[in-house]
């Protein structure tokens, strides 16, 4: 990135950077961060749930409050207690993973700890560079038209949800499961009837279902990536006090983004099974009620 007010801003890229390969599979900095977040969450909940007691201690009480709060959110959003309990594991997992992934990107060292490596560039990206730019950036052109950026600084870590691949993958999982829930609730014939009726509006219904993928993924990615860029630029241009204000706001916005993704997930499931089953206490079977008690 070009200097602003004689200050060199860090390089900001939409795509994650590849750190290494495991066979043919590239491992990016966002993949590495995702693994760290997942391991941390597994260890955290193992620590919370081991040695459960009838009278909970502090760590168990914290886990129970979190579960009860997320379940209450799902029930209040869908209005269907039985449905909420069915989709609660997915909704709670999404909320916790998005929240911790967002906060991981705000930790000191994320996107500021670099590894130096040669980064390959496509022929299309290479063709856009002038000879002066290539010399300035230490880029070497290959005979096949591709380029290699020599000794490029690549961030070692990047927030998992600041990667569009991750948010699109999460959105695909949600939408596929939503369609499966609709088929289970209505039957294949009933599902297709609701999707394709009336016939002139069938393309709009299909486009609407596909648009949910873009809505979920791009909203989360855009807000997370934009927030990280804002904080990075503020740290580069100003003193610590001003960026700290934006960092505090990002902590709040992280919870909001996780909440929005989770609420939309519950709403999509509720719409998919609408008209099938009640929404009151009698949706819970006697066996389930006894087990919960």
Give a written overview of the molecule:
By secondary structure, the chain is mainly α. The chain has 2 domains: 18-50 and 57-112 and 158-292, no CATH class; 114-155, no CATH class. 63% of the residues lie in helices and 10% in strands. The chain contains 9 helices and 5 strands, in the order ββαααβααββαααα. The protein has helices at 29-49, 58-78, 81-104, 123-127, 131-136, 164-196, 202-237, 241-272, 286-292, and strands spanning 18-22, 25-28, 114-121, 139-141, 147-155. The strands form 2 sheets. A 3-stranded antiparallel beta sheet has the order 3-5-4. A hairpin with a 5-residue loop joins strand 4 (139-141) and strand 5. Helix 6 packs antiparallel against helix 7 (202-237) and helix 6 packs parallel to helix 8. The chain is globular, with a radius of gyration of 23 Å. The model is unreliable at 1-7 and 275-293 (pLDDT under 50).
Which labels suit this protein?
2 domains; three-stranded antiparallel beta sheet; 5 strands; disordered C terminus
The ordered H/E elements are EEHHHEHHEEHHHH
Number of strands: 5
Terminal CA distance: 59 Å
Give a short account of the largest sheet: 3 strands, antiparallel
Query: Could you list the spans in which at least 5 consecutive residues all have pLDDT below 50?
Result: 1-7, 275-293
Q: How many individual helices? A: 9
Number of domains: 2
Structural class: mainly alpha
Mean pLDDT: 83
Sheet-strand content, in percent, reads: 5-15%
Sheet with the most strands: spatial strand order: 3-5-4
Helix content range: 55-70%
Give the CA-based shape: globular
- Using only C-alpha atoms, the radius of gyration works out to 23 Å
